[in-house]
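It would be a great kindness if you could assist me with a short task in structural biology. The full record is reproduced below for your convenience:
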Amino acid sequence: MKAVRYLLLAAAAITLSACTATSESSRQQTLSITARSGVKTLVAKNWHINDDCSQIDYPAMTIAEKPKHGRLEIVHEAVYPKLDGKQSKCATTKVNGVVAYYTPNPGYTGRDRLVIRSPYEDGKIEEGVLSITVVK
């Protein structure tokens, strides 16, 4: 049975700001998001499921670079996976996953940045670099 492991960087307002860089052992996504000062914002989610949508395990997600003007929290919770191909049937099934939330410091406006790492496939690492614009 083929397993699916996926990292999705997400938020209410995401704009691709740079191409994905890849090497044989890693890939990097650079995204720009907007977050409201003091408000918890979903920035990433990850899951590891079988073709039948059942959970394999909780995938690893680590903080490679903490934000300077806020807090990054990684929690286990149910998510709707976003998949293509034959796994797309799982898009309407909640599965256990790992979710990252960014909360800017109350009253802070301006720029922030964070980096999240997660493994995919055999021994490869995906790095999500988020440039954040914090508004009132």
Remarks:
- The radius of gyration is 15 Å.
- Confidence is low (pLDDT under 50) at residues 11-19.
- The first strand starts at residue 3 and ends at 9.
- Strands lie at 3-9, 14-16, 21-22, 26-36, 41-50, 62-65, 70-79, 95-104, 110-120, 124-135.
